[in-house]
Amino acid sequence: RNTLSFFWVSVLSMLSMPMLLASIACVLSAARADVSSPVVAVGSYGVELNLVDGNCVKTPGPFQSLAVEPSSAAKFGLWKNSQEHILCMPSSWTAEDSNVLPALDKAQFIAKPDPKLSSALAGGYGFGASVEVNLRPELETRAKWPLQANVPSLFVKMQPDKVARALGFSAGLTGQAEPEWPVVVARPREHNWPLDVQLLDDSIGKCKPEPEFGFSRFLCRIQSGQAEAVAKLLVFCGPCMGSNLVVSGSETKVSVLVEESTGSGDQLSSSAPWLGLDTLAPEADKFRSWVISLVKDTGGRQEVIQSFELAMVVGDGMVPWQTAVGTRTVLSLLGTALAAVVALAIALVILACMLASAGMPAAPAAAVPALSTGIAVLQYLTLLSAREDAPDTLQHAFGSLYWIAPSDTWYALLEAAGIIAAIAIFHAVAVLQHLQANGRGAADEMPHGLNFGSWELRGLSFLVLPVSAAATSLALSGMQTFGSLRGLLKFGVGLAILLSLLGTAFSVLVRVRNWIEDSHIICVQNKLTGEIQYVDRVCDQLFAMPFRRGRSRLFGNWCASPGWSFSQTIASISEVENRGQAKERSDTSWARVWPSDGPWVLTSSVLSGSASEPRQRTNSVDSTSTFKTDRGASIDLPLILPRKEKPKTPLLGAHPARVTTSFAFKVADNGVSFAGVAGLPWIDVALPASSLCTLEKQLDGKVSLRAQAIQLSGPLTSGRLSACFELCDRRPWRWSWDLLLKLALGVFAAGVPGQIDASWAPVVHMVWLAIMIALTFVVSLSWPYQNIVDNVSAAVSIVAALMGSALYLYSYKMPETSQPATVTLMVLTLAPSCVAVLAGALSVQMGLKARPEKPEQVLSSVAPGWSHAPGQAIGTGYASLGNESEDDSPNSVGVTPMTASSSGTKAEVVVQPPKGMEIRKDGQVVREKLPCEVKAPLAHTRLWTKGPAAVSSEGAVDGGRAQFAMPAGLLFDLDGVTRNVEVAETCPMAAVLTPEDAVLLYQKDDQNGGRSWLEVLRRFIGNDNPALAREAERILRAHVARQPPESELAPGERQVAVLEIGRD
After folding, report:
1. What element of type H or E holds 330?
2. Strand order of the sheet with strand 164-173?
3. What's the mean per-residue pLDDT of the chain?
4. What is the rounded CA–CA span in Å between residue 732 and residue 516?
5. What would the mean pLDDT of 223-246 be, rounded to a whole number?
6. What is the spatial distance between Cα 376 and Cα 370, in angstroms, rounded to a whole number?
7. Predicted local distance difference test score (pLDDT) of residue 65
8. CA angle 742-515-601, nearest 5°?
């Protein structure tokens, strides 16, 4: 039974196979049935019409019916599906991969007779006896062009704003009625586009291509009076004709798929070379759009070759373009890359801040100028792109950056509040770490930089633009429902936020200006570099010497500018005041320069009776009402105190401020932070910042040293408003005006364009652009930062904001250039962000870099005057900086030019604390070792015992440095100890160092307390180890014997013996 069933199934299948094949053939022929050869029958023969450089096919018209038929259309049946047409296109358009440019301005026809027609019967024109073939160039006229076989016709001109032109073609016997065929010749207006679109009735509007980089679009504008009118669209497809011309049996077919994006969402597909769309024009202020895709079907597998977007609007309405399917979203990719760069810059700056907080030499402030300006312009452009009426190019370009400027009002405000709260939490953690590290008394001696408000103001400058935009949107939203309680609250909250931001900017600006005009804050200039810095006139804290990355061949002076400085607050000091006199200038008090060398004097030394009377801490920001009375006893004295003594060495002359610490902060030993210098005429000593705590304990709670003016800190320039006195800023007004500028940009982005009457829009747009142009000139010419790189970044950012405003307002009027302009805009916005990434990366690398092996590698760059060669001048005057030169008044007290007397010998000073002030650790005396430079050659010998004998060796161990003994009272000021000036300024003959004690030996007996150096040595070593004493005496006797007579030695040429006595 199974076999029988299989037999009958096989028979039925064989019988039905011809029917199935016939059906498939019918389907395939139906797909190509609408296209045939352009041959017109004349009697027993035919005539074929073609383009000289193209192809023609015979195909039905694209429309079923016409609402309004012109007389020409009615006569020829033009565009109707019931009428066969001859459709002609250039061969370069119908070929899928052709690179030949089609003829865009004219067409030329050629008629060919039937190949079966013999030459004997060809007749006069070659088509046969009594056969006439004519071309009607204009359907509205009776004029005809007679055609001759295989001879090109006259040129038919194409209208530049139209895709197609209609003609008439007739072929018939002489004296008989000639049937005329409608001929349509079409060519693409964009030579590399496979499609083109045209309105059938050009009296209601026109369609044109919108070529933009990365997008393929057609825009049809309907005249204002034709809203909701019947609009018939013609879609011409060159590759579709090409696929229909391929020989039968080809598996490849090209078709057009039209999908409506608005309205009903209908789809229409056709493989014909043209397609008609029946639609209605949109209403005023609305639009309609379609996506037209060119689809290739190969063996049943469909592939979208290219997609186009078609939009129809009435009048000058704006087109909210959508990205066409299959089109490469170049702007979106660029926007994503830009978002990644910004995120990387922010991450690097945060990492640099963490490194700097941990005491590592990172400089996050170096990236702040570029990051601040770059983020501001991106926030502005992101807010513009988030508006409903924003151009599609801006939306795709900056859509991935909404996280830095949320368009949602409440989300933006909550995000800003969360960021400020996070900054405050980290600020509190830093304060707790300071209190824990420094123990008792740390709460009363808080670094000014840890005052609450200083970190938060810096964070506010990055958030003010989106916050002001959100507040503006909130106020405008409340105005629309002002009659309700909710609307009133929204308006009040938005207005309160805007007024608070505005008041903050102006109050900070006014306060800073008053401080400078009243000389509470002064501007000092570095004598060697010409750089300026604002400091308190009365200072009570000390920074470490500013350490910078330094100049390089690749980055020039950028990494050596003040913004790259790493400088920790290392100690509270007794108040010192600049008692110099500024040169009065006629322009502004901002540029008034004070002498950096002061003189800087203790406030107690010029206040009568202040040494014994309790006095409120001066220069307090919290007591501005009694500010002048509190400080007036010293600051209002008109006299300039002359310098009592000249600096003994170039190093001391380059560090004119004498300071005394009162509370040293515990800082990490990073190898680059130095508190200041100390020294005598024959030795220069540098004090690492990490050594201050130990020295302070050993020196009865205070360390006297010399510092530069830029190291001095007060509660004004380093406190709550320290954001106005960043080292990268050229003037203190930069922060306030930056806040006002960002506030204005936020208001513009949220409130100006879409919230006004349409009749006033052009005027407001022009005013908006005028303001942006003015801001561009102001920012570019004001030069707000110290370095040219930061100033160029600011200028580029404001130019990008201007360009983005113009694109937002007028891109719909210049659609052909909006895409390249947006790409240019993104490149402009990318530049500051890349600078910020580079600065952040270099700053992080600077913080993670291994500490230098030798302190001289740092001191030569941070301490002017260190290791200067003989004859090289130090402190010869201020470098020129525009009109900000050194005060040249008769009362000026600049540093006297000094020259180094010797190149010096590098060593380490071992500070011997006073008796009773020693600190012991693991049973041994803790003694600080400070880098020094002795202005004399050293003869270094190590001495130790080996059993009962004493052994000596010249030089240091493993190439180390000689350790030079130095009693603390000789180098630092001690209470109750009167320093012998003659002894202190005399270079010793020898320095003897033991694990517990140290002594200096002098050639003259009166400098040794009335004893000879030999007697002092014997008493110092004692009688516990006679062998050690004899060996030390032998070494020093030999050293003295080798020295030439005193009369034959120049200053600094006498060799100093350094004797290090160790244990077994």
Report:
1. helix 330-357
2. 54-60, 84-90, 180-186, 164-173, 131-136, 145-146
3. 81
4. 10
5. 87
6. 10
7. 80
8. 135
| Cα distance between residue 68 and residue 78, in whole Å | 12
The reported pTM is 0.69
Q: In the chain, count H helices and then E strands.
A: 22, 42
Q: d(Cα 604, Cα 612) in Å, to the nearest integer?
A: 9
Place of tokens 């070929």: 95
Torsion angle of alpha carbons 560, 562, 567, 571, nearest 10°?
A: 140
DSSP string, 939-951: EEEEEEEETTEEE
**E strand or H helix at 223:** none
Q: Are 304 and 252 in contact (CB under 8 A)?
A: no
Where helices occur in 481-588 by DSSP H, the ranges are 485-517
Quote the Cα angle for 237-242-248, to 5°: 130
How many CB atoms within 10 Å of residue 782?
16
Q: Count of residues for the chain? A: 1064
Strand, helix or coil for residue 993 = strand
**CA angle centred on 303, ends 296 and 253, rounded to 5°:** 15
Whether pLDDT at 40 is above 50: yes
**Token pair 């924003």 is at which residue?**
390
448 C-beta neighbours (distance < 10 Å), count: 23
What is the DSSP code string of 787-805?
A: SHHHHHHHHHHHHHHHHHH
Are 765 and 742 a contacting pair, CB within 8 Å?
no
- Measured from the Cβ of residue 473, the count of other Cβ atoms closer than 10 Å reads 24
Place of tokens 């009693």: 967
SS3 of 747-759: the string is HHHHHCCCCCCHH
Angstrom distance (rounded) from CA 53 to CA 50: 8
CA distances from 811 to 308, 595, 640, 824 (A): 20, 55, 64, 14
User: Strand, coil or helix: what is 1003?
Assistant: coil
User: What does the alpha-carbon distance between residue 604 and residue 577 come to, in Å, rounded to a whole number?
Assistant: 10
Tokens representing residue 24 in the block: 């498939």
Give me the sign of the Cα torsion angle 662, 666, 668, 669. positive
Residues of the chain with pLDDT > 70, as a percent, come to 82
949: left (phi > 0), else alpha (psi -120 to 50), else beta? Answer: beta
Q: What does each C-alpha distance from 999 to 696, 857, 900, 962, 993 come to in angstroms? A: 21, 30, 27, 15, 7
Residue of 1038, 1039, 1019, 1031 lying closest to 1061 (CA atoms) = 1031
Residue 1052 confidence (pLDDT):
63
pLDDT digits (tens, 9 = 90+) for 255-306: 899 988 776 667 888 888 999 998 889 888 888 889 899 898 877 788 888 8
Structure tokens, 640: 């300039």
Do the beta carbons of residue 59 and residue 85 sit within 8 Å? yes
CB count within 10 Å of CB 461 equals 18
Geometric angle at alpha carbon 252, from 248 and 256, rounded to 5°: 110
What residue has token string 């008692």?
579
Instruction: Give the CA count within 13 Å in the CB-facing half-sphere of 1015.
Output: 9
Residue 389 confidence (pLDDT): 74
What is the rounded CA–CA span in Å between residue 407 and residue 750?
9
SS3 state at 1001 = strand
* Cis peptide upstream of residue 599 (ω within 30 degrees of 0): yes
Collapsing DSSP to helix, strand or coil, 236 comes out as: strand
* Full DSSP string of 865-910: TTTPPBT-EE--SPPP-TT-----STT--PPPPEEBS---EEEEEE
Residue 154 has pLDDT above 70, yes or no: yes
Question: Which amino acid is it at 291?
Answer: V
Mean per-residue pLDDT for 393-398? 83
pLDDT at 14 over 60: no
Asked if residue 955 lies in contact with residue 1022, where contact means CB atoms within 8 angstroms, the answer is no
Q: What are the pLDDT digits (tens) for 65-113?
A: 876 655 666 778 889 988 899 999 998 888 765 555 555 678 999 999 8
Q: CB-based burial of residue 584 (10 Å sphere; 0-12 exposed, 13-18 middle, 19+ buried)?
A: exposed
**Rounded Cα–Cα distance for residues 728 and 790 (Å):** 9
CB 370 within 8 A of CB 865: no
